[in-house]
Amino acid sequence: MKIKLFQELPKPTNFPLVLQCMPEQVKKMSSAVASSRTVSQMLACFVVLVLFLCSITSMVSLRSQRRSWWIGSFLLDLESYRDCSLLSAENITNLTLDDANHTSSLSVVADGLTLQAPEVISLKEQLNVTLGDENNACHQGPTTHFPDYFTFCVLVVMVSCAVYQLIFCIIKLLLLVAICVAYLSMVLFTHGSLDGEVFISRYVTVAVLIGFTIAFFIHAQQTEATSRLDFLWKLQAHEEKDEIEHLQAYNRKLIANILPEHVAVHFLCTDRAPDELYHEECESVCILFASIPNFSDFYVELESNNEGVECLRLLNEIIADFDELLEEERFKWIEKIKSTGATYMAAAGLTKSTRDLKNFRHVTAMADYALRIRDQLEYVNEHSFNNFKIRIGINIGPVVAGVIGARKPQYDIWGNAVNVASRMDSTGELDKIQVTQEVYQILHKKGYPLSCRGTIKVKGKGDMVTYFLNGRSHDIIEEDCSSSGTKEAAAENHT
Ligand SMILES: Nc1ncnc2c1ncn2[C@@H]1O[C@H](COP(=O)(O)OP(=O)(O)OP(=O)(O)O)[C@@H](O)[C@H]1O
Known about the structure:
Blueprint: H1 17-20, H2 24-35, H3 37-64, H4 78-86, H5 97-102, E1 107-110, E2 113-116, H6 117-127, H7 148-163, H8 169-190, H9 202-258, H10 261-268, E3 279-291, H11 295-298, H12 309-325, E4 334-340, E5 343-348, H13 361-384, E6 391-404, E7 410-414, H14 416-426, E8 433-435, H15 437-445, E9 450-458, E10 462-469, H16 474-494
Parallel strand pairs: 6-8
Antiparallel strand pairs: 1-2, 3-5, 3-6, 4-5, 6-7, 8-10, 9-10
Helix pairs in contact: 3-7, 3-8, 7-8, 7-9, 8-9, 9-10, 12-13
The structure holds adenosine-5'-triphosphate.
Residues 345, 412-414, 418-419, 422-423, 459-460 line the site of adenosine-5'-triphosphate.
């Protein structure tokens, strides 16, 4: 995989605390600078150059003031420095202001420069101080008093250049070389006279600066290599994190497709015991079994239908249509449990949020769903020129819900209510929805048209009075009519 170096990593959403206290304009400016590596580098180079200029400005002034004789100015010039040096305690031991006034033939010889007594007196008068005194004008901070200061300043500037890790090492090298060349040319050519007793040897200065440049360049290379490695690791970590998140989302979706949402949440929870059996007791669950008994007649393995695959394709479409209907908001109470062959099983009221013990909306939703899938099969028959018949059974009661299996876990429900619901299907009639007395009592109150089938024999249960659900609730139809009427009226008003 080819990775672009210094590609920009996702920016942190939160500003550091210091930046948060800053005015909005400053925040914007700093984030604009930080977001562009080129701008940041240019800014860093600019800062280093400004520092360098600041450090050598005094040196330039020193040269421009050389001919002036302004004692007491901030920049004492070179000649005054030399004069002060000559008048230091080492050269004139017994000279005080009074002595000098009375000594007419005093002369001072040092470094080949001869000052006659009147000149010395004149100088001393101008200085108006006692020579050899630490606080005299000769000591008042002339830059030349400690000229190596410039070399140290330049070294500090070079250190500041090394501090900026974001500058490429090659740019750093160019910057360091430029600083060295500029400074050394000043020391060697324009300020050559500062050498000797004033500067440390020019050769030492050259050696020190070259040595520092090499050291800083090696340091810059190492820092850059570390930064690149750091960047690649960060990039790799980001990619791996994205991959893990993607995988987690995929797993979540997969589990949500296999298990009901609330059960999937339980299984994705990290602090659950791995061998723990998931089960829960649910009261008043409405169970539906819907089967297509004549599908087995339709299913034949022939060469013409690709050994039965085309039959399975049609069954798959029917089941998928049933699944799709559950996406509708009004069927949110219902959870598909499974489909076995041509039998579809669903339950409503498995969680608190999908159970309505007051208005039994989960039961009415199941009744509507049963009517809806019957219509859907009619529709499939019309379009596939088949004559599939559906048989539906509905019951209500307590169940135990749980997940069975470690490798291919399956959510299922068990209990007498489930067995009876299955019996309502198996003992039912084609194209009819058979319900138990408990379901009848709920649906009847809600305005659903039901007809009593009579007493039937149910295996294991004995005689049972059952009912057929014949259509939708009058209340719901009225509600639908009024809402569609309102919609039409609204549409009319709109036009
Ligand atoms: N969770 C379930 N999923 C699918 N079908 C179920 C489930 N629970 C019960 N049934 C079905 O309910 C029907 C009634 O079961 P019951 O235990 O009363 O009698 P059975 O003797 O086991 O059934 P059968 O006589 O059909 O073999 C069975 O056909 C069974 O397949």
